[in-house]
């Protein structure tokens, strides 16, 4: 399977039941290895039949005859690692700076789980992560879905450091239109909700929603694959404990979440930015104005700034002037696709 990450092509293959990632180019004539085929433990180039194992070593060159050694430089470039977690394939081109996020609800039999359709957008991953952590936009961007009747005031909260990322917990009065108790007249539309955001760099987010009046829990896993400067793939997994295994209601819930996501994308794709501003320099352009309600977004910028500094220790200096952006972040584990 061919994928792109930060502008680079990769091929993902299952060789002897193990997920492997190689640069998607044969060292012979640079043909895409994703145009080839899998033969047991080997990936076979579709152009001239050169064979490669998981390490990138070339094991056979048909044009040289049986048993003839391959040229020493005939190696496909392997990624630092590839693995499967939470129903996705993850690729780390180089050694990661952060772990893959946990998803404890996936092992809880009380939760039903479904994937939303994978979405590709022109909005950049940094801005999408910032939007996911933002609570102040809900009454305005999502007035037609979850924002109806929601208080515009965001109460004070803190972003608590946790591992390489952070955790945020906030309680608000929000609309809960999916609660059957609302339609039955048992509970009001606007209810108490405790939201817990967990962030791991660069673009891994989990949101646990506890509706305290209804006694239900929803969790959303939100992971972003920055394909290149103008394309991000969004992977969203929904887990709920209030549907009792009803497949129809679960599909309806997924469609509703997709409606919410599309409301976000309609605005995010309009932003005239090619990345999330991290550290503006004097005279580099307009500077963001932040308020108390932006604590999670400011924490995101701090974490990504640290990540960028670590990644640049062994890379050339930045060009003078300008604003640093969280678009081309370093080689952490990032979601690529569902198998």
Secondary-structure blueprint:
Blueprint: E1 2-5, E2 8-15, E3 18-23, E4 37-39, E5 42-44, E6 51-52, E7 58-60, E8 81-85, E9 88-92, E10 112-115, E11 119-121, H1 125-133, H2 138-141, E12 159-162, E13 165-175, H3 180-183, E14 190-200, E15 204-211, E16 216-228, E17 231-240, H4 247-268, E18 277-280, H5 295-311, E19 323-325, E20 334-337
Antiparallel strand pairs: 1-2, 2-3, 4-5, 5-6, 6-7, 8-9, 9-20, 10-17, 11-17, 12-13, 13-14, 14-15, 15-16, 16-17, 18-19
The count of DSSP E runs of length 2 or more, i.e. the number of strands, is 20
Number of domains: 2
Task: Return the structural class.
Answer: alpha+beta
Uncertain stretches of 5 or more adjacent residues? 318-325, 327-332
What is the C-level CATH assignment of the largest domain? Alpha Beta
Order of helices and strands: EEEEEEEEEEEHHEEHEEEEHEHEE
CATH topology of the largest domain, by name, is Naphthalene 1,2-dioxygenase Alpha Subunit, Chain A, domain 1
Question: What distance separates the N and C termini?
Answer: 10 Å
The biggest sheet, with number of strands, parallel, antiparallel or mixed sense and barrel status, is: 8 strands, antiparallel
Mean pLDDT: 89
Keywords:
339 residues, 2 domains, 5 helices, Naphthalene 1,2-dioxygenase Alpha Subunit, Chain A, domain 1, 34% strand, single chain, alpha+beta, elongated, four-stranded antiparallel beta sheet, Rieske Iron-sulfur Protein, eight-stranded antiparallel beta sheet
What does this structure look like?
The protein has helices at 125-133, 138-141, 180-183, 247-268, 295-311; strands at 2-5, 8-15, 18-23, 37-39, 42-44, 51-52, 58-60, 81-85, 88-92, 112-115, 119-121, 159-162, 165-175, 190-200, 204-211, 216-228, 231-240, 277-280, 323-325, 334-337. The strands form five sheets. Strands 10, 11, 12, 13, 14, 15, 16 and 17 form an eight-stranded antiparallel sheet that branches. The protein has two domains: 2-79, Rieske [2Fe-2S] iron-sulphur domain (Rieske Iron-sulfur Protein); 101-339, Naphthalene 1,2-dioxygenase Alpha Subunit, Chain A, domain 1. Helices cover 17% and strands 34% of the residues. The chain is elongated and about 80 Å long. Mean pLDDT is 89; it is low at 318-325 and 327-332. It has five helices and 20 strands. The protein starts with a strand and ends with a strand. The longest helix has 22 residues, at 247-268. With 339 residues, the protein is of the alpha+beta class.
